[in-house]
UniProtKB/TrEMBL annotation:
Domain DEAD-box RNA helicase Q: 364-392
Molecular function, one GO term: helicase activity
Ranges where the record places region Disordered: 1-342
Naturally occurring in which organism (per UniProt): Microbacterium phycohabitans
Similarity comment text for this entry: Belongs to the DEAD box helicase family.
UniProt feature, compositional bias: Basic and acidic residues: 66-283, 290-326
Name of the protein in question: DEAD/DEAH box helicase
DNA sequence: AAAAAAT
């Protein structure tokens, strides 16, 4: 412990000192509103002005952009009108767009309202709900009053309350107080005004009626056309990216060294091939051996953020790959850079020992891993009768209280791998203690998206409840009251996303000081820019020395920042033999003309099974969902521009099968489990190999078969080749045009051809 | 670019 913490602390100081600076910037954020309020005296109205002001500021910026965009748009119009029939994007709509542009600030303003509206919606039912019990309660009082009759002053007292209620009680009293009614009515317009918002809301919800507007909107939004236009430009972007690439190109002669790479690739399969027999022979030693390989991989991956630098690094990599020390960087508590190999050896021995333990109990079941009967039964109810490999590996060390890093590919059972032992640990730590009202949570699970947090809770909750422990979800986009209420009652395990957790933490409504087990799901993702610092602050709020568990399908050295500060001699696990050969996912890349893209997508999603389509931006995801719908294929979208209610509902629509096509941003890339998605379409190719792996992992789960189709243009072939190489995935590139058989095949319609 | 708080 002290060994780690001292050097770790030192590193943390080096690594995070600047980030503390960033932290102060966060504090500045807090101060801003205050400062703004000070700058602009007044109470609330200046506050509103404060909101308007940035918009006013933003508006000219938008105008500038739109002015620029107009030039590009005109070009885009020309391109589109040539490329496409004017079916969906009719000219009158385009012509109407300028009007829409004028509307934009308002619309964009509306959007900023929408979360607020949705928030209001959630509150209103509660208000009315809260009010009505009050009424009914009052009514129970009334009989008493009516019994007294002489108590009418009391009634008048009630009347005073009634207007306060919902003004309805005032009706019974109304006859005398019709002016009061008119007063009530004066309130109602406000309500009706709210209602006027609601139709807008419902209008928002029913986005499709809005679709009538949307051509305008989509056109209006400087975003969409720009974005869609960007698509057209993506070659340009990619071209822009190529400065980096072009930098690569300068190195592509170095890539000409790739024959060397390809040579390396031929070695990799050889390695993996060598591994498997060993793995098969003795799982765990093999496992440790595999790890020694993957650290190399992870090292390669760690180069990715360095992609810009890759040429150099990748060039340097090859010698390094053959070197063991880098492996140590991955496995070891990354302290002593000096004694790499010793560290490696030490770590490997430890891993090996534990791995063997896990392997010996693998066949035995969860009980033998140390889980209690209730938990084992709960797992069986969840369909987990016997442990998957990742579960067999991690349960015992987690119960021992060790910090654990674990990598198991998508759909390999990671949630139970940390969830079941976590519940067991908390249960043991609470043995003999009362579950006190208002007790502080003992465990924390962090996830990158709300949907994932929700899904994790769906798995953990039954396990926890089987032993009398309580969980609650803490994530944004929904009112706090219910979450805070649960915390006040007292829960044992909280599952959520960083933003709301930190929010409640800062509000003093969440006490993490008794959290002894903290889990980071999709841990590498949680270490990316924008996530890392909140996560660090949250982890720092947990009990000193709390156990840390980091899980991900693509766990790599990206988590080093957290490992350095928070983990002590972590055990590292991964599942042997997880490569493409053992995968149930088929990968295809269609090289298409951009002008065919929309129709090719229509053709692909026009099928029987559940299809998940990934788009790079929210706007494009939304546009595609509308496009499919217009083409007669029921589709919904999932992205961060939707309110949480709609996000949840749309995902549920796919899960329940009410729609078969979901178009999502990368919000759905990680962790989301829908049983039988058999086709994943990447309308936009991902930029990172990790994203590819996670997106494609939405299919082929639990041994089912699945297909991943990625659409690219010719310009992107090289980039795609490199990405697939990093992902260690082999996929054929197929030049595809409208009407090609491959589209029928991929959509499954070839079956009809066979029968016909 | 997206995601993660709310206003």
């Amino acid at each position: 412990m002290p060994k780690n913490k001292k050097p770790a602390g030192g590193r943390a100081a080096k690594n995070f000192e600047p980030r503390y600076g960033a932290k102060t910037s966060f504090q500045d954020r807090k101060r801003r509103p205050e400062g703004a309020a000070a700058d602009k005296p007044g109470s609330k109205s200046p506050g509103h002005r404060g909101y308007r002001a940035p918009e006013a500021d933003a508006a000219p910026a938008k105008r500038r952009w739109s002015a620029q965009d107009r030039v590009g748009r005109d070009e885009a119009h020309g391109i589109r009108s040539q490329a496409r029939g004017d079916d969906r994007y009719s000219r009158p709509e385009r012509d109407a767009a300028p009007r829409g542009r004028d509307d934009r600030p308002a619309r964009s303003f509306d959007r900023s309202d929408r979360p607020a509206r949705s928030f209001d919606r959630d509150e209103r039912p509660r208000r009315s709900f809260d009010d009505r019990p009050a009424r009914s309660f009052d009514r129970t009082e009334r009989p008493a009053r009516s019994f007294d009759r002489s108590d009418r002053p009391a009634r008048s007292f009630d009347r005073d309350q009634r207007p306060a209620r919902d003004d309805r009680p005032a009706r019974s009293f109304d006859r005398n107080d019709r002016p009061a009614r008119s007063f009530d009515r004066s309130d109602r317009p406000a309500r009706s005004f709210d209602r006027s918002d609601r139709p807008a809301r419902s209008f928002d919800r029913d986005q499709r009626p809005a679709r009538d507007d949307r051509p305008a909107r989509s056109f209006d939004r400087s975003d969409r056309p720009a974005r869609s236009f960007d698509r057209d430009e993506r070659p340009r972007r990619s071209f822009d990216d190529r400065p980096a690439r072009s930098f690569d190109r300068n190195d592509r002669p170095a890539r000409d060294d790739r024959p060397a790479r390809s040579f390396d690739r031929t070695e990799r399969p050889a390695r993996s091939f060598d591994d498997r027999p060993r793995r098969d022979g003795a799982d765990r030693p093999a496992g440790s051996f595999d790890r020694s390989d993957r650290p190399a991989r992870s090292f390669d991956r760690s180069d990715r953020p360095a992609r810009d630098e890759r040429p150099a690094r990748s060039f340097d990599d090859r010698p390094r790959r053959t070197e063991a020390p880098n492996r140590s960087d991955w496995n070891a508590t990354p302290k002593r850079s000096a004694e790499h190999e010793q560290r490696v050896d030490v770590v490997h021995e430890r891993l090996q020992a534990q791995a063997v333990d896990a392997a010996t109990v693998t066949g035995a079941g969860f009980s033998e891993l140390g889980l209690g009967d209730n938990i084992v039964r709960a797992l069986a109810d969840l369909g987990a009768a016997s442990p998957f490999p990742i579960q067999a590996a991690t349960v015992a060390p987690i119960l021992e209280g060790r910090d654990v890093l674990a990598r198991g590919r998508t759909g390999s059972g990671k949630t139970i791998a940390f969830g079941a032992p976590l519940v067991e640990s908390i249960l043991r730590s609470q043995a003999g203690k009362r579950r006190e009202f208002g007790r502080a949570p003992k465990a924390l699970i962090l996830a990158p998206t709300r949907e994932l947090a929700l899904q994790i809770d769906r798995t953990i909750q039954p396990i926890a409840r089987s032993v009398g422990l309580f969980t609650t979800q803490i994530y944004g986009g929904v009112p706090q009251a219910r979450q805070v209420g649960a915390l006040k009652k007292g829960v044992d395990i909280i599952i959520g996303t960083p933003g709301r957790i930190e929010d409640l933490l800062n509000q003093g409504k969440l006490n993490l000081s008794e959290v002894t087990v903290a889990v980071l799901d999709e841990a590498d993702h949680m270490c990316e820019l924008g996530f890392l610092e909140p996560v660090q602050r949250i982890l720092r709020a947990t009990a000193k020395g709390s156990q840390k568990l980091l899980f991900s399908a693509t766990l790599d050295r990206e988590v080093a920042a957290l490992v350095d500060e928070f983990l002590v001699e972590p055990a590292v696990y991964e599942v042997a033999g997880e490569d493409q050969e053992s995968s149930t996912i088929e990968h295809r890349v269609l090289v298409i003309e951009h002008r065919d893209k929309a129709q090719i997508l229509d053709s692909l999603v026009d099928r029987e099974g559940k299809t998940l389509v990934f788009a790079r931006t929210r706007a494009y995801a939304e546009m595609l969902a509308e496009q499919f719908d217009d083409a007669g294929i029921a589709a919904v979208a999932l992205h961060g521009d939707l309110n949480q209610q709609k996000r949840t509902r749309n995902l549920e629509k796919l899960t329940s099968g009410r729609v078969n096509v979901l178009v999502a941003t990368d919000v759905a890339a990680r962790g989301i489990h829908v049983d039988d998605i058999d086709l994943v379409i990447q309308a936009d190719a991902p930029d990172e190999y990790k994203t590819y792996l996670h997106r494609s992992g939405r299919t082929g789960r639990a041994g089912r078969s699945g297909t991943v189709v990625t659409l690219i243009t010719r310009q992107r072939r090289r980039r795609m080749t490199e990405l697939l190489d990093r992902a260690e995935i082999e996929a054929p590139f197929e030049e595809t045009q409208l009407g090609d058989d491959v589209l029928e095949e991929l959509s499954g319609r070839q079956l009809a051809d066979v029968t016909s």
